[in-house]
Amino acid sequence: MSHDPQPVPPEAPRHPLGAPTARREGRAKVTGAARYAAEHAPPHRVHAWPVPATVARGRITSVDTADALALPGVHAVLTHENAPRLEPPEDPAVAVLQGPAVPHRGWYVALAVADTLESARAAAEAVRLTYAAEEHDVTLTPDHPGLYLPKEVNGGYPGTRERGDFDAAYAGALVTVDATYTLTALHNHPMEPHAATAWWDGGHLTVHDSTQGSTKARDDLAALFGLDPRDVTVVSEHVGGGFGSKGTLRPQAVLAAMAARVTGRPVTLALPRREMPAVVGHRAPTVQRVRLGAGADGVLTALAHEVVTHTSTVKEFVEQAAVPARVMYTSPHSRTVHRVVALDVPSPSWMRAPGEAPGMYALESAMDELAVLLDLDPVELRLRNEPATEPDTGRPFSSRGLTRALREGADRFGWRPRDPRPGVRRDGDLLLGTGVAAATYPVLIFPSSAEAHAAPDGGFRVRINATDIGTGARTVLGQIAAEALGVPEERVRVEIGRSDLPDAFLAGGSSGTGSWGWAVHKACRALREDLSNRQHPLPREGLAVAADTREEIAAGSPYARHAFGAHFAEVQVDTVTGEVRVRRMLGMFAAGRILNPRTARSQFIGGMAMGIGMALTEHSTMDPVVGGFTERDLASYHVPVCADVHTIEAHWLDEGDPHLNPMGSKGIGEIGIVGAAAAVGNAVHHALGVRLRTLPLTPDAVLPHLP
C-alpha cells in the first residue's frame, strides 16, 4: 500500500480562527455519550461514601465501625486508624484520614465502601465516632485580635503596597469617600459534583477525576502515594464546571485511590453536594474599607483599599481583593493592604476571578459614591482617572481598552441621557435605576507543551493535556491548530484531558487558551514548515512534532498585560416586596482577539450571570455555634436561574495586541464576573437613593430602606 505525501494545501480554511464554530463535544454532551468522572464503570466497581466531622475543632477519641461492616455488601470502612499512610502533601487539605485531629466541621474522618451507592451511604451513617471537642472560633470581625499581615496573597502578590504619602494626600483632598463593603462567603457549586473513579493495576494508579488540571493532579497523587508520576494516569476528558474549586487536588481523588488500594476494586466516590462547601474551597468573606481622595475635577489624589478576610488553620489562602486597586486608576498616593486571621473554618480557595471579583465590587462601588459627591457622571469620572502606565509598576500597558469599552458600552446601553438623581424613576410600584462599573483581569500565561501530527491520509492530530471545563477548549484549540497549519478545521483532531498527553497547565486564571494555544500554535507551525520542506512521502506512522513554551514564558514581558471591561445594568426595586430584579445588563470587553465568538459570548454572559448572583442572591452564613456553613445545597444557596437573567448582552472591541501570544488573545473566563456585582449595586443605589454596602441585596436587606 503506497502512502503519497500530503503537503499542506494552499487553500483557505473553511473555519478560520475567529469564526463562531460550534463545540466539538456538543453532540456527545447532549446525547449522554460524554462520560464524566463518576460515570466510568470498570468491571467489579464499588462505591464509596464519606463521613464528615460533626465538630468544628477537636480530636477523634474513638471509632466504632462494627455496625457498618456488618451491613450487606460493605467491603471496608477507612478511618485514620486503618487508612493507607500518605506522604506529607504540598496541600495539607488533602491529608485525609491521616490522624485524629479535626481542624474544621465537615473535615472527612471516615469512608465507607460497598457494592452499591445506597449500601455505602447506609454504612457511612452507621459509623460511630466520638470526639473531644475544643472551643472554636469561626467568626470574622474587622478588629479580630488574631489578624496579621501576610507576606503574600493569592497569585504571589505582595500583601501590602504603599506608594507616596497616602495619609497626607487624603487629609488634603477636597472631596473624600470613606466606605466599608462586606461580602459573605460564596461557593462554587459546579453542576457536576467533585467525583473520582480510581483503580490500581499492579503498581499503576488510574483515576478519572473531575479536575481542572490532570497534569497537576497526577503529580500530586504521585507525591502522596510515593509513586513515580509515570505510574499514575489521571483522566478528565469531560468536566462539568469548576469555577476554581477543581483547580487543585481535592479529597475525592485521594479517598477513591486509598479505597481502591484497600479493597483491590475500582472505587467511585462522588462528594455529596451538601458536603462540598466544607471540602472543596470557597470564596472567603471580606470586609473592605476603601478611601478615595479627589479634587473638584474628580481626579484621584489618594486611594486606599484595605481588606480583612479569613483563612483556615489548615493552610493560608488570602484573597487578593486589594490588588485590582493597584492597576485601575490614577493614584499617586496609594495604600493597599490585606489582613487575615486563621479561623476554625474550611480552607478558602479559588473561585471565579479570585481577588478581582470581590475587590472590584468594593472599588467600583466607592467610585460610584465619589461620582455622586462630585455630581459627576460615573462614566466620565472613570475616564478622567485613566493612568498612562500601570500605577503599581510603571510599566506600559500592552493594550488598555477601558476607555473605549466605557464609551462604546455606554452608547450601546443607552446610558445618556441619564437623570443622575437617585430614587426618582418609577414604573408603578417599581423604582428604576441604572449603574456602571469597570472590570479588569490580568493576562496569565503558563508554560505548556503540545504535539502536532500529520497522517498520510491528510488528517492532523493535536495532543495536549488541556482541560475542557465547559469553555469549549477542544473547539478553539482545533481552530488555532487549523490556522497555524493552514488547513480546514475539520481536518484537525484534538486530544485533551489525559495526563499521558503532553503536559499542560491547568484550566485556571483565564490562562487556558493563551497557554495551551501558544504551545499548539508553535507545534503546528513547526509541523507545517517540516511538511513544506519535505521531499519524500510520509511514513506509515505519519510525522509528529513536539513543542513547548518554557523558553518564551521564562523570557517574561516588559508590558503590563490585562483585559478590561465595562458593565452597565438597569434594575427595578419593588417598593412592596423589596425584591430587586435586573431588567437588562450589558458588558463591553477589551480582551484581545476573540478566537471564537460563540464560545466567548457564552463565557462572558456566564460570568455576568454569576455576578448577578453575587449581587442579589448568593449568600453563605457561618453558624458560630456549630461552626459550619448553613447554606449547603442549591435549595438554600441561591444561584441565578433563567428567570433571574432577563436581557443580557456581551459585546467586545476588536482589540489588537501583539504583546500577548501568537493568537493575540487574552483570557475571557473571568473578566465577565469582575465588576458585574458593582454595576448592579450602583444601579440599586440609583433606583433607591440609599447606598447598601453589604451583598447580597436580598429583600430583607432592601425593605427597611424603601420609601
What does this structure look like?
It is built from 16 helices and 29 strands. With 707 residues, the chain is α+β, with helices and mostly antiparallel strands. Mean pLDDT is 96; it is low at 1-13. The strands form seven sheets. The chain has a seven-stranded mixed β-sheet with strand order 3-5-1-14-11-12-13. The longest helix is centred in the C-terminal third of the chain and has 22 residues, at 512-533. Helix content is 24%, strand content 25%. Helix 8 (356-374) runs parallel beside helix 15 (676-688).
List key phrases describing it.
707 residues; alpha+beta; disordered N terminus
Please state roughly what percent of the residues sit in beta strands, choosing from under 5%, 5-15%, 15-25%, 25-35%, 35-45% or over 45%.
15-25%
Query: Biggest β-sheet, characterized?
Result: 7 strands, mixed
Spatial strand arrangement across the major sheet: 3-5-1-14-11-12-13
What is the helix content? 10-25%
Unreliable parts: 1-13
Query: CA-to-CA gap between the ends?
Result: 85 Å
